[in-house]
Structures are given as C-alpha cells and as structure tokens.
Amino acid sequence: MCKIWQNGEPVYVSRLNREWSPKPNLLDIAPAQGDNRFLVKLTNVSGDWSLSPKLTDLGGNAIPDVTYSAQ
C-alpha cells in the first residue's frame, strides 16, 4: 500500500501490493506557493522496498529552480 500527503492533505492512496517498477505511477499534483512537504508511507509485504520520486511539469520535463531533500 502507498499513501502520499502534500502539506498534510492526502493526495494519493493505492491499496495495491506490488514490486518497484520503472513504469511510473503518474500523479497530477498542483504545488502550493512556497515550500511543499510530501510525506510518503509505503507498506511492504515481502522483499526490498524502493521509492523513486520525480518532479516534472505535465510534459515530463524537469521544473527549473525546484529543490528537494529527503528527511
């Protein structure tokens, strides 16, 4: 299962259990002005787990002047 929150508000829930795949799950999430905090909760049934987030515009292009960090 995967749940994602943006600035404390839920923006994605998937109850599927699956392995990591290079085929992305695409989410259309509008950023708020200023800083945006994302919280990701993944549950794992077996094996290793992975997360590969990528922030892009709707065309799949990198967004200029966007910085991020994992904590």
Task: Please provide a written account of the structure.
- With about 70 residues, the chain is mainly β.
- The chain has a domain at about 1-20 and about 35-45.
- The protein starts with a strand and ends in a 29-residue tail after the last strand.
- The protein has no helices and 3 strands.
How do you describe this structure in short?
By secondary structure, this protein is mostly beta strands. The chain is built from no helices and three strands.
Residue share in β-strands: 15-25%
Span from first to last CA? 21 Å
Q: How many separate helices?
A: 0
Q: Report the order of strands and helices.
A: EEE
Q: Look at the helices and sheets and give the structural class.
A: mainly beta
Percent of residues in helices comes to: under 10%
Taking all residues together, what is the mean pLDDT? 86
Number of strands: 3
What layout of secondary structure does this protein have?
Blueprint: E1 2-6, E2 9-14, E3 38-42
Antiparallel strand pairs: 1-2, 1-3
